[in-house]
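Tokens help. One example:
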Amino acid sequence: MICDEIQKLMDYGLQNDLIQPEDRYVVQNQYMEIFQLNDWQTSGDASSKTEIDAILQPLIDYACAQHLIPDTSASRDLFDTRLMGVLTPMPREVMASFRKHYAVSPEAATSWYYAFSQNLNYVRRGRIAKDLKWTYASEYGTLDITINRSQGHCRSKICQGICISQVPAVSGKCRVCRQLETTGKAESASGFAANSGRTVAAAILTLWLLPRALHCVQRKAYSNEDRCGSV
């Protein structure tokens, strides 16, 4: 049953501290609206899936089979982002958590944010695992080389497709821009992107804190190198 698959996603959110037990019925009602469900029935079986890709896949397949979304790569990506947007904390909560970890150290803040982005599937672990990576010892130092094999299509085309959609953009601007914080219509593919605004907004509003944290991490690394070199 589709309710069982939705429950697995909600359980994932609880296990990764994206939502709290008090949020359960609000989140459940949002998913019922997305999947156009009038009744909620689950078998009560415990979820054995832990990877987010495995949890999202049957939900996306169901949406395609029920013609809730077109069965295209772009629509699937936008739809799973919409599903994760329901689990995403408010930007103020994300920023508060970032500052809390930053008070410990810049390294703690950036490590937390990266793990948080992975749990939200904003950083897609399953796709990154497909990349080819190796190092090369050059005359300038060790180079990290990566070949991105995770995308079968150009993501800039997805963005372009959203921007030129027949659905009016917010304030006449691209829905992928910061105007995403004002959500749009949910009936279209570009609407899915608008409804995932909380996911993107959480990233945008936190990213302004990252440069300072990264600068502190980098400065500390350089400082250690200087000390080692002066010995």
Summary: The first strand starts at residue 132 and ends at 138.
